[in-house]
Write a structure and sequence with these properties.
By secondary structure, the chain is mostly helical. It has five helices and no strands.
Length: 217
């Protein structure tokens, strides 16, 4: 969903965020009973999604920079500061920013004609963002706390595999968010089978309404 860029979450196209861009082209009318966001609410949530996705992308880049400093620096003070700073990012920013990007993208996808599973790029972006969110919250934070706890206790450099993971994991996450950004800009692959079926149903419904409203009916 950092589309980022997580980065998500599936959403309506928006300016590059981590990860959404552009304005939606004409799309079929949403089926009756489906959640539709009013125009003003859609714009508000789009701003929230863009801001949180860009923030997630920047946060991941910062975590990666600190991980590289902690892994490769020969200065014990730099190593200690790097992992303690990572823990601050993980405790104060990682969860709210990643969840906000995911949930705002999900709301935008469900509240607009793009849908969540109607276009391949939206569905792919959503699953990438969901996976990145879960990995960040459940795994990355644990490794950050492990390394930070060790340097706080005086072990510099930290023992174990945390220093390696804290370079590899943010690197992979950054690649995921950049992929989500590209998906939001390029919008490849077209509609899914579900999307084509819903579009056909919407066209048939419009045709039926037009026939009912024709003179002589």
């Amino acid at each position: 969903m950092p589309t980022p860029p997580g980065p998500s979450a599936a959403d309506t196209p928006a300016p590059p965020s981590g990860p959404a861009a552009g304005a939606p082209p004409a799309a079929p009318t949403a089926p009756a009973g489906r959640l539709r966001l009013p125009r003003r609410a859609r714009r508000v949530w789009l701003v929230v999604h863009v801001a949180s996705s860009v923030g997630w992308l920047g946060l991941t880049a910062g975590v990666l920079a600190l991980g590289i400093a902690g892994r490769f620096s020969d200065d014990p003070d730099t190593v200690r500061a790097a992992y303690l700073a990572q823990r601050i990012f993980a405790d104060w920013l990682l969860i709210p920013v990643s969840l906000l990007s995911l949930l705002s993208g999900l709301l935008l996808s469900l509240g607009t004609t793009w849908g969540l599973l109607r276009h391949y790029w939206v569905a792919t972006k959503f699953w990438l963002t969901l996976a990145a969110t879960l990995a960040s919250i459940l795994a990355l934070r644990a490794f950050i706390h492990d390394a930070a706890g060790q340097v706080a206790a005086g072990t510099v450099p930290p023992d174990g595999r945390a220093p390696h993971v804290l370079v590899i994991a943010p690197s992979v996450a950054l690649l995921v968010y950049l992929t989500a950004t590209v998906l939001s800009v390029v919008k490849p692959w077209g509609m899914t089978g579900r999307g084509r079926r819903l579009a056909a149903e919407a066209r048939a419904a419009r045709t039926g309404r037009a026939a009912d409203a024709a003179p002589g009916r």
